[in-house]
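Retro notes, item 3 of 5
We never archived the inputs for the pyridoxal-5'-phosphate complex last cycle. Fixing that now. Sequence and ligand:
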Amino acid sequence: MNLFSLRRTPPSLDDLTAEYRQATRQDSVSHEYLMPAAARLAPVFVRGQGSSVWDTQGQAYLDFSQGGGSNSLGHSPGVLARALSDQAYGLINAGPGFHNQGQLNLAQRLCESTGCDQVHFFNSGSEACDAAIKLARKWGQLHRAGASRIISVSNACHGSGFGAMAASDAFDNRFEPQLPGFSQVPFNDLSALHAAVDAKTVAIMLEPIQSAAGVIPATGHYLKGVERLCRELGILLILDEVQTGMGRCGTLLVEQQYGVKADIITLGKGLGGGVPLAALLARGKACCFAPGEVGGSHHGNAMMCSAGLAVLETLLAGDFLAQVRETGQYLRDGLTRLAQRYAEGELRGTGLLWGLSLGDESADALVKAALQEGLLLDAPKADCLRFSPALNVSKGDIDEMLLRLARAFSRVRTAQVQCRKGIAV
Ligand SMILES: Cc1ncc(COP(=O)(O)O)c(C=O)c1O
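Structure as it came back at the time:
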């Protein structure tokens, strides 16, 4: 059996075991040809199913990161595999100069379900955020006398393109010179924002919940106030929902929970369910791009849009999102209990996006200890663990994750005590 073959039905345990054996027989491949531009942990993964993923050694891991929340329906969900397979046999790529049915279907369904008027599809959240900045500046050319300055907030993360990076606060090397026309104000501080807006300002751009900063939510008072300020001062509100959108927080967009409506929204990560797909959505007068102003060989690619549609239909079906909210409470309760025992910081988040702050800088050590326990997590900050499991994660998997995490905490805390006592570990 081909290790990477697409299936129409979930594999049996025997299938999986045979495949792991095959995988473990493969010679290990060197990673010296990969640029070391991204920090990566050691395991080499060959297969995933739901909340589990297996490496070349046949070791199974419970995945509570899911590619930073990108695998919204877990690893290799049937609905996504089928959509991709069907589309691959039909049409992979019509080219950006033509329409394709999948792109049109996804555009309509996404606009109708989010209350937006238009959308353009991209390959990554960074690209969508860069394009959000372009769209705001285009609006500024048309409606605000050429105003172009974007105000963003402290600890923001909008991605790695030059525009997105200029609006972000999260990089050691900013590859100067940076793109001009950006300024930053403290997050959750309405008066600082008010004071910063001038005639050259075109938009405020922010994440409703700052995931990379350690899952820090905007307060309701703040986000409502930002929206009101934008309306009063005649500037645009750009919400970056690359992390929080697509059901991650228990509603399709998290702006619904805050009761605000942005002019421009970016989506990414969970939209493709694990394949590269992102979107720029706009409302009303903010829909002002003209042909040729954003282009990309794979924008609106038929394969990727078929994945996006499969994900979106799944999220909108039945009580899926209500289920995310319920499972999210279950995860929150479990993490709260665990935090009382091991962590000294607070638990922040909503739906199935949680950050546990630790009271010390042991997050990296915990991620590595969790890996030894067969658990994948990530640490957006040195003092914070992040949980972004599959949106259909089971309560059983949450229980198992909590057990493994408790063991990881225990390993790290024991090592810390031994270290303090001067015992070599
Ligand atoms: C809020 C937010 N915006 C944008 C991005 C960039 O998305 P991508 O990594 O797909 O370029 C990220 C990535 O983590 C993000 O969390």
